Amino acid sequence: MSGVYPYCIVSTGHDPPPWLTGLDGRTVQGHDVGSLTVWVSECEESPSLDLERVAQHHEVVRRAAISTTPVPVRFGAWAPGRSTLSRRIERGREDLEAALARVSGCVELGVTGMGASDTPAPAAVGSPGPTPEGPSPDGRAYLRALSRVYAERRGRRERQDAVARDLHSLLEDVSRAERVRYLRPPGLVALAHLVAREDELRYRGLLDGFTPTGGAACRLHVTGPWPPYSFVAP
Amino acid sequence: MTEHASSRDDAQVSLVELVNRVVDRGVVLSGEITISVADVDLLLVGLRLLLSSVDRLERPAEDDPPPRVLPAGSEEGIP
């Protein structure tokens, strides 16, 4: 008995094209479970993680997203057989159907705000902190340096909050859902939005005129359209 | 002000965003949690390898040829 590797879940009736291949060139097939079809490949064992396989996994999900809206499965799911996979799908069927309904007709778009290249990166969170450059018997230099580090961190967090707030306000009307991640330097924030397919151009157009509050320097990278990876799990 | 992102920056951000989505988003089917708990070390090793691969991709390879400056108006073509 062969194991199976799932890529995504769609409504029944949306089978993968017969020529489609996934992980390590394996053929992708549809596996029906009630009203759902799981796009899977036969796979003897759980695949190890590498960039090529991540790209192959994504390519299958992306292909599904051309004809319908899939619920992407996180990389690395593997079942020892089709019956085990069916049981797992059955167990979560209500949630999966709710997720399908939630993202139906939508794509995910991402916008990442990066700090200006000439902005010095503040000390990493969790670093040991400042080291006095010379002897400082009363410790005042050390405390001043410590104070600078904390001020930089506060300033950075305020910048992140401001950019996230500005982007949220700008894109609120065109987004059905939003997820925000705070990034390490030189990144600031990454926002993911669930957007109706027909609103993608409007979304991009709004970002063309983006200016952060206070005119702080910020480079924007828009990514997508993605299958709705960020909006199918709690 | 908002700056335009270079295509190289765009490619790097896209790669990071791809990995973030495929590895850290999407539904987790029941049953996998057991596998993850049992194989915590393996999963961590896998992630470290993946992240170091991303890091390698973001840096120019040591044996990459140095960038060439072309005369104004010329185009890179097949020699």
> How are the strands of the largest sheet of chain A arranged?
2-3-1-4
Largest sheet of chain A: 4 strands, antiparallel
Total count of strands of chain B:
1
Total number of helices of chain A: 5
Largest inter-chain interface? A-B, 53 and 34 residues
Percent helix range of chain A: 25-40%
Q: In terms of per-residue confidence, which ranges of chain B show pLDDT below 50 for 5 or more consecutive residues?
A: 32-46, 55-79
List the topology elements:
The complex is a heterodimer of chains A (234) and B (79).
Chain A: E1 4-11, E2 29-33, E3 36-42, H1 51-67, E4 71-72, H2 82-91, H3 93-103, E5 106-115, H4 140-171, E6 177-182, E7 187-196, H5 200-208, E8 218-226
Antiparallel strand pairs in A: 1-3, 1-4, 2-3, 5-7, 5-8, 6-7
Chain B: E1 2-3, H1 7-24, H2 32-38, H3 40-58
Description:
The complex is a heterodimer of chains A (234) and B (79). With 234 residues, chain A is α+β, with helices and mostly antiparallel strands. In chain A, 34% of the residues lie in helices and 24% in strands. Chain B is mainly alpha-helical. Chain B contains 3 helices and 1 strand, in the order βααα. The model of chain B is unreliable at 32-46 and 55-79 (pLDDT under 50). The chains are: A alpha+beta (234), B mainly alpha (79).
